[in-house]
Design brief:
There is one protein chain. By secondary structure, the protein is an alpha/beta fold. Helix content is 41%, strand content 16%. A hairpin with a 6-residue loop joins strand 7 (150-154) and strand 8 (161-165). Helix 3 runs parallel beside helix 26 (548-564) and helix 4 (127-135) packs across helix 27. The radius of gyration is 23 Å and the shape is globular. It is a peripheral membrane protein. Belongs to the carotenoid/retinoid oxidoreductase family. CrtISO subfamily. Its EC number is 1.3.99.23.
């Protein structure tokens, strides 16, 4: 019997090594494509020639290798990865500009960034920085935020406490200890545990790359949980873990404050997810020079150079299937007519709900495998945003390159739960969290681009149900009742149904499928993978991996690994050393 166990174990190890180290497919990072920095383009008309290329059937390239639905970072990144190995890819975006949550818009002379507030892990020669450099040919530049980069504000004006959050692994800890003398042990343990748990994320990726039978074997035998600290803590709430570490309620709140970046109150949040965010920002936070639209602006030419295109005002209304129920292309609504575009591979960055519930035929939606995946996820909470333009420079207005997380008190769970469960009118009187930042203050090119002006962004959460009755109204001509409610919640806010219209979020969510504890079960992560139950149809972006810019980018790497039959995550990890040592063949 023991011999059989040993043989099976060795076979499992051999298969896992094959998928971890597998390099049979083409490598998008084989050549270092960074180029000398070119002058930044500030002329909006010139940028729009790249970002706002409207859909026409005549613009669709012939003999496509793949179609990507959605131009968020998950969609653009997979398109660039495929383009780098010679694939001709068409990206289709329903909005009037490319970028998804990385797009910007201009109102009354002010430019607003809708989704990128700050990004971590961008030190030179870190894997994510190197990947982004390759995906933009080294043209996307980053500016570090101030230090402290976050400030946590607790309490009413008469009893307000402000806790600065510093970057730097040692300084983060040291400064936190200065704020909370006597809590040194709790702070050390919180950081130690977060690092340990975050380091186990590798198995989440592996579960999505391994053959399904092997992934399920790891799940059902309990090996996945035993092998990964990430999954061992995935079922534990942030509240439970933090409450075991300290009795200090302000410290508990400061340990939890960043939950707003993935959208779950601490008692419903997985400690594993939270640990990733803490570690993501330990080395600092950055903002793209020139604003978020620079991201798409520098990725689209790479897609085009390989013969592909990124076309906007291209609402995909369904995925085309053949008689064998295999994806063979998409249908794009052009006015009242459908334009059919064909390709051997279809990749959706539209999210799992849009893909399965809106883009597939009804009879296919009912497939048990699709229904199983849908039963494992739920919609995330809706987002509220206010975009404020102010005359004056950052110096005149006292604006800095940092973020404020403002809470009425330190009982975060109680505040959030009461707010989300109330009706819109009641909850408008007790908004539990406000995120405030100045994108213009973070961007060193802003004074040249928009002299004498500044912007401020305010973000919070809202229940989609509060606004649902007005979802079919014209976006800029909704009823008086709707306008009164949104003014009551946050004056001048863009609501969940605004998100529904502009970024295609089915329930106005800003982080895709919900990031609560169930999202991090081993079974879900072995089941929801880039491959869908429909042959030749793949998922990319946030719903494949995790939310946010980094999460969606990781989803694209995972999708690319499957399509190209190569572990791109391993290539990404090796990039810093190869680029630094010049082992990548330089672009001619």
């Amino acid at each position: 019997m023991w011999i059989a166990v040993v043989v099976i174990s060795l076979a499992l190890v051999a298969i896992m090594i094959k998928y971890v180290l597998g390099t049979s497919g083409p490598n998008p990072f084989a050549i270092d494509t960074r180029e000398p920095l070119k002058p930044m383009v500030f002329d909006r008309k010139l940028k729009n020639k790249v970002l706002k290329q409207g859909f026409l059937a005549s613009k669709v390239p012939q003999d496509l290798d793949a179609i990507v639905v959605g131009s968020g970072i998950g969609g653009l990144a997979i398109a660039v990865l495929l383009a780098k190995v010679g694939k001709k890819v068409l990206v289709l975006e329903q909005h009037d500009r490319a970028g998804g949550c990385c797009h910007t818009f201009t109102e009354q002379g002010f430019e607003f960034d809708v989704g990128i507030h700050y990004i971590g892990e961008l030190l030179d020669h870190k894997p994510m920085r190197c990947v982004i450099d390759q995906l933009t040919n080294g043209q996307l530049q980053w500016e570090p935020l101030d230090n402290p980069f976050d400030r946590v504000v607790l309490g009413p004006p008469e009893n307000r406490r402000i806790y600065p959050i510093y970057s730097g692994k040692k300084r983060y800890i040291d400064e936190l200890k200065k704020c909370f003398p006597g809590e040194e042990k709790a702070i050390d343990e919180y950081v130690r545990l977060s690092k340990k748990v975050a380091n186990g994320i590798w198995l989440m990726i592996l579960l999505k790359l391994l053959p399904t039978p092997l992934a399920k074997f790891l799940v059902h035998t309990g090996l996945a949980t035993r092998l990964s600290s990430f999954f061992r803590y995935a079922s534990r709430s942030l509240t439970d873990v933090v409450n075991e570490l300290t009795q200090n309620k302000d410290l508990r709140a400061v340990m939890c404050y960043i939950f707003g970046t993935y959208g779950k109150m601490p008692k419903e949040a997985s400690f594993s997810m939270h640990s990733l965010l803490l570690c993501h920002y330990l080395n600092g936070a950055w903002y793209p020079k020139g604003g978020a639209s620079e991201i798409a602006y520098h990725m689209i030419p790479i897609i085009e150079k390989a013969g592909g295109a990124v076309l906007v005002r291209a609402p995909v209304n369904r995925i085309l299937l053949n008689d064998a129920k295999e994806a063979i292309g998409v249908s794009v609504l052009k006015g009242q007519e459908e334009v059919h575009v064909h390709a051997p591979i279809v990749i959706s960055d539209a999210g799992i709900f849009n893909t399965y519930e809106h883009l597939l035929p009804k009879d296919v939606q009912t497939m048990p495998a699709i229904q199983k995946q849908l039963s494992m996820v739920q919609h995330g909470d809706g987002g509220l945003s206010i975009f404020i333009g102010v005359d004056g420079t950052k110096e005149e207005l006292g604006l800095k390159a940092d973020n404020y997380f403002i809470f009425p008190e330190n009982n975060l769970d109680e505040l959030l739960e009461g707010y989300m469960k109330g009706n819109g009118e009641e909850s408008s009187k007790k908004v539990p969290l406000i995120f405030v930042a100045s994108p213009s203050a973070k961007d060193p090119t802003w004074p040249e681009r928009k002299p004498g002006k500044s912007t401020v962004t305010v973000v919070s959460f809202a229940n989609y149900a509060w606004f649902e009755e007005w979802k079919d109204d014209k976006v800029k001509n909704r009823s008086i009742d709707y306008k009164e409610l949104k003014e009551a919640v946050l004056t001048g806010s863009c609501t969940p149904i605004t998100n529904q219209h502009y970024i295609g979020a089915p329930k106005g969510e800003i982080y895709g499928a919900d990031h609560g504890i169930p999202r991090f079960s081993v079974e879900l992560n072995a089941t929801i993978r880039p491959q869908t139950p429909i042959k030749n149809l793949f998922l990319t972006g946030q719903d494949v991996m995790l939310c946010g810019f980094a999460g969606a980018l990781t989803g694209a790497l995972t999708c690319g690994s499957v399509i190209l039959n190569r572990n791109l995550h391993l290539d990404a990890i090796g990039l810093p050393k190869r680029v630094k040592n010049g082992n990548n063949k330089k672009k001619e």
